[in-house]
């Protein structure tokens, strides 16, 4: 089968990412094999390709070169083989979830990270949901604990995670302000944001409006600035940001927020998203109710994954892009 691989870390996807021929995988116990209809691209795949920040390498992904040559996490497609100890899924089921090496014709997916595909959306849209959607859901529901009527500020509202945060916070009844750069402001408005701030001309953190929650997925602003935009009991949820820093990738800000939080009236912190089937089911419900529509800008073929990675790294993507084998 055709599969996207890379054998070393490199900041330039065009120097490393290629399509190779690999055997079709077999499912282990607790897994299915999915014929991939579509596979969403997320920032994490860029980090795995680049080997940055270095912190990621020591977390088990391979110090000098990647341990796993394949790329791709999000997936939507059709179950073609079922491993032992699998219940609830059968050959022919349309599914979405988080698998191994999903930029390929076929991929293994653990059932603990798998759900039946939402009705009423394409496989391409379903493939854009898993990692960004789960992260957004957990940021809004579990970390910001958004309640109806609250004011929520979304930094990076035009991005993969941010585009879902806007929609999910609206679904939770919040008044949502999305922050994006000029050409992406229209997208954020179309996603349902009540207010949109163009960060190239206006500072959303000037303190003129106080928010019950700030969900930060982009911009890497100082904690001091982010706090200024919060109510006294507001919550700051740092999802992440791209700084290009080699070693920690800007993680110090998340660490500082966590350490500082007990000494201020506001709650500040970060989290690593949990990849689990129950929240994929919750995402499916949000999609089927019409509250969430994946914002897919365009699709790329397997031999165009390097182009997709380059577009993401350059900040040219609006919402999500999806790979279609
Ligand atoms: N904690 C976790 O478990 C977890 C899970 C997933 C992702 N992440 C991290 O979260 C971050 C966001 O991920 P993503 O997939 O949403 O990335 P993305 O699709 O690249 O979106 C990031 C957004 O940041 C915005 N941005 C850039 N500069 C900005 C500025 N100065 N002010 C405000 N916004 C700015 C960009 O929009 P504009 O061009 O419109 O400004 C872009 O849409 C990444 O660092 C990723 O690694 C963490």
What can you tell me about this protein's structure?
- It is a single chain.
- The chain is an alpha/beta fold.
- It has two domains: 158 residues, Quinone Oxidoreductase, Chain A, domain 1 (Alpha-Beta Complex), CATH 3.90.180.10; 139 residues, NAD(P)-binding Rossmann-like Domain (Rossmann fold).
- It contains eleven helices and 15 strands.
- Strands 3, 4, 5, 6, 7, 14 and 15 form a seven-stranded mixed β-sheet that branches. A six-stranded parallel β-sheet has the order 10-9-8-11-12-13, sandwiched between helices. It has a two-stranded antiparallel ribbon with strand order 1-2.
- Strand 12, helix 9 and strand 13 form a beta-alpha-beta unit.
- The relative contact order is 0.17.
- The model has no long low-confidence stretch (mean pLDDT 97).
- It binds NADP nicotinamide-adenine-dinucleotide phosphate.
- NADP nicotinamide-adenine-dinucleotide phosphate (NAP) binds next to helix 5, helix 6 and strand 9.
